[in-house]
Automatic annotation (TrEMBL):
Keywords, alphabetical: Signal
Region forming the signal peptide: 1-19
Upper classification of the organism: Bacteria, Pseudomonadati, Bacteroidota, Sphingobacteriia, Sphingobacteriales
Stretches assigned to the Glycoamylase-like domain: 216-431
TM regions (residue ranges): none
One Pfam family it belongs to: Glycoamylase
Protein name: Glucoamylase family protein
Organism of this sequence: Mucilaginibacter jinjuensis
Length: 451
């Protein structure tokens, strides 16, 4: 089972070990930024959200406005690589920044206009974007030898952000109307049904004009890809049928669980839950509160997954240095060996700040303990110009100097969902999403999607 989990987890994180650098002012090392003493909980959340947002604002690509994959230089992928999914997370972070007035609304409109106009001209395949693009030209940068075309999961992360932006920029003026129009044009052109591979009852992650379906990776649950099925069912021109969800996503050896770990029942997924990003990526916009279908209560799923992760770190069976009630959180990130999908069944002693901090909606008390420890006790090692660096391993005396878009974005967004519900409210207000959820037989006590 552990081998199966490792293979699936590595595939599902998209082999994020690859990297790129900033084209103008590289930031290969952490720039020290002093911490502020004696902050209230609310003030500390402000500081962390705002500093983390700078990754997407100050470090965003100057031409496209999209998010760079990571801050450090690794491998030889050039200076201009931007990431599709991470850009969706960055768009949602920008909406938070506008709402909290860290930037002006005019600045947000200007950046959003730059982003959508760039994306509209960028490479896509049956309406689906590649994992990586050149931030200057919009041309595909291959992610691996045969992954040189459409990436359906990354595109779903991007559209989670774009649909939130469409709902947010609702003013009756030419600029915001233009943003909405371009997003709607791109949204309508996504051929979700193409990715059933000639009408099969499952979605496929990749398609390439050069390699066809050679990547051959069907999306089966449970992992971070729930949002892909929700959006595929929500499509208006090229949707998928409910059977694709029920016969594809919900049919696998690692979908249903039902076992108890540290006193918490886990409805779905791998034993001990797997890496915590499963509770974050699909649920940046999709509100799990009161959200249920025939398979699970998704608040229970995400809460218990998080509690299992927390309790495992407190238990610390492998006796790693630093683990405890104020230092927990296992998920995919950089580590002292490269990159891995860390979890209780794949524990290398690596704590990743985004794991505990993006869990604020689920475990606010535990997350605040971790935040205060990361900021005040470890700040001189992991706090810098874009917030917390990616990960650390105190047993190895290793502290990352890198920042990753897919780890920084959920910190801003999920803390905001805990504080105000902003992004959840925007995404769940989309009429297409409500219809897609209804189509898949979801129910919600928070949003009346079945009426």
């Amino acid at each position: 089972m552990k081998k199966i989990f490792t293979i699936i987890a590595l595939l599902c994180i998209g082999f994020y070990a690859s990297a790129q650098k900033k084209s103008s002012t590289p930031t290969d090392g952490i720039k020290p930024v002093g911490t502020i003493k004696n902050l209230s909980d609310s003030a500390l959340l402000d500081v962390v959200q705002r500093q983390t947002f700078r990754y997407f604002w100050d470090f965003g690509h100057p031409v496209s406005g999209l998010a760079r994959e990571r801050s450090n230089v690794a491998y030889d992928y050039g200076n201009e690589v931007v990431t599709t999914g991470g850009s969706g997370f960055g768009i949602m972070a920008m909406l938070v920044a506008d709402k909290r007035k860290w930037i002006t609304h005019d600045q947000a409109v200007e950046r959003m206009t730059k982003i959508v106009e760039f994306l509209y001209k960028a490479d896509s395949y049956h309406g689906v974007f590649p994992h990586w693009m050149d931030g200057k030209t919009g041309k595909t940068i291959r992610f691996s030898r045969k992954d040189d075309g459409a990436d359906l999961v990354e595109t779903s992360f991007l559209f989670q952000g774009l649909l939130c932006a469409r709902q947010y920029f609702n003013a009756n003026n030419d600029q915001e109307r233009h943003i909405r129009d371009v997003i709607n044009w791109m949204w309508g052109e996504v051929e979700w049904n193409w990715f059933t591979r000639d009408g099969r009852d499952v979605l496929y992650w990749h398609w390439s004009p050069n390699n066809g379906w050679a990547m051959n990776f069907p999306l089966r649950g449970f992992n971070e890809c729930l949002i892909t099925y929700v959006l595929a069912a929500s499509g208006e021109r090229y949707p998928v049928s409910p059977e694709v969800y029920h016969r594809g996503w919900a049919q696998s050896d690692f979908f249903k669980n039902g076992k108890t770990f540290y006193g918490h029942v886990l409805p779905l997924g791998f034993d001990y839950g797997g890496p915590l990003f499963y509770t974050h990526y699909s649920f940046l916009g999709l509100n799990p509160k009161g959200l249920k279908d025939r398979y699970a209560d998704y608040w229970e799923q995400n809460l218990n997954h998080t509690l299992i992760n927390h309790d495992y770190c407190v238990d610390n069976p492998k006796k790693f240095k630093g683990y405890g009630p104020d230092c927990w959180g296992l998920t995919a990130s950089d580590n002292h060996e490269g990159y891995n999908a860390h979890s209780p069944t794949n524990d290398l002693g690596v704590i990743t700040p985004t794991a505990a901090l993006s869990a604020f909606p689920y475990t606010p008390e535990y997350s605040m303990k971790a935040l205060r420890h990361f900021y005040y006790d470890l700040g001189d090692k992991i706090w810098g110009e874009y917030g917390f660096t990616d990960a650390f391993n105190e047993s190895k005396n290793w502290y990352a100097k890198s920042y990753l878009a897919i780890d920084e974005g959920p910190i801003v967004v999920m803390i905001e969902n805990y504080r105000s519900g902003l992004i959840w409210n925007l995404f769940m207000s989309c009429p297409e999403v409500q219809q897609g959820l209804k189509k898949l037989d979801f129910q919600s006590s928070t949003y009346h999607i079945n009426q």
